[in-house]
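Quarterly update from the structural biology core.
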Amino acid sequence: MKSEFKRVLVKKGFSEKMADEAAQLFTETSCDGVYSHGVNRFPRVIEYIDKGYIDVKAVPTKIEGMGAFERWDGNLGLGNLNAKVCMDRAIELAKENTIGCVAIKNTNHWMRGGSYGWQAADAGCIGICWTNTHPNMPAWGGKDRRIGNNPLILSVPREGGHVVVDLAMAQFSYGKIESCKLNNESLPVVGGYDSEGNITRDPAEIEKTWRVLPIGYWKGSGLSILLDLIATVLSGGNSVYKVGQLEGQDAEYQLSQVLIAIDAKKIAGDDFLGKAVNEVLSDIKDSEKVDENKEICYPGERTLNTRKENLEKGIPVNEAIWDKIKSL
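Predicted structure, tokenized:
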């Protein structure tokens, strides 16, 4: 899979090094079971390159620094590469200052936001990062889409498996909705509204209306608005509103993102960090189960299980999408 991704990216004009790093990120995302932002998303990334939304030669550049905080410009480079560079820089700042924060403007869809939470945790850091999007969700009480589903990622390092949560402010990301539609599956719970204004689990209906449900109803709507405002102010870049004014309004580019790393090992020490995290997770897993046949998992545990299974058995793909990638 990585070889195919890299082959196409090189043909599209990326350097060998950049193509290799991007292909690795797309493959890891797919291996971890987030097919919606890995293998299934890849053909759309190529379309964005062809439309000029992604500059294959661009690399992110630092604009200014203020101690442990820096502002960067993504220069319309590939989103996952830009985010990886900025989280690497946030980690470097955290190793120097205990905390590091990089806000980046003018970047593109970062694919799986969880990648940068895992990246921070691998470096022994707490990770906090989020992105804004184009307008793809109604504010609570509204019908038309004015706010973004603005994914938020939180991670804590742990020997034996990091704790990582990656959540959109919508009940389901559009990538997940698309995956369910491709697999002819209903969503596990209601995720939005159909053409008649009724809540539904039908992914095709939700794709038609663009009326996804925010998590926690008004709470998710409020979180979305504040995440957007903070990313806009810190990066000096586009808000969701401004992204919605760009050419190709359903495209997602020129976004604003924030990536934060906190050196947890330096602050807490290995012994306290491990003990504190493990006792909380152990207590949660000892919960009385609603269904004895279903495991209670901590955030990130299912990802680790899927990664293990896919490394042993291979990564499942939608044949039509895989054939399209091979033909690119």
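The first helix runs from residue 2 to 11.
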